[in-house]
Design a protein that fits this description.
Helix content: 10-25%
Radius of gyration: 14 Å
Order of helices and strands: EHEHEEHEHE
Distance between the termini: 30 Å
Strand content: 15-25%
Low-confidence stretches: none
Amino acid sequence: MAKIGIFYGSTDGNTERVVTQIQTLLGGEPVAVLHNVNSASADDMQPYPYLILACPTWEIGQLQEDWDSFIDELQDVDYTGKKVAYVGLGDADGYPDTFIDAPGIIHDRIKDKGVTVVGQWPTEGYNFEASKG
């Protein structure tokens, strides 16, 4: 069984393209399995020791619509021993005060549930004022 579950929501296809590239770079489906949150459940997350949660930020700091419907599922996952990385897409020029807020909103839901967060990305080169991500 694959060790990495990649859970994503994608309205326009941008996030889906990004996570498909990540899946390929990680070694394909034997290593990482894609799960669109529009048809996923907490049970789908449970078997993976590693999770990648990918969500674009919509409008003014909002979750993508499928994540908005899925986010309550996160409460039903046992995160003991799990490592989680976040992937966020957003528009720093159009929304500099809420750039990449969606991953921060997701993190706020699970940060006190024993999750270990891994991965960082530098902010150099991005022009934004604030971000929950």
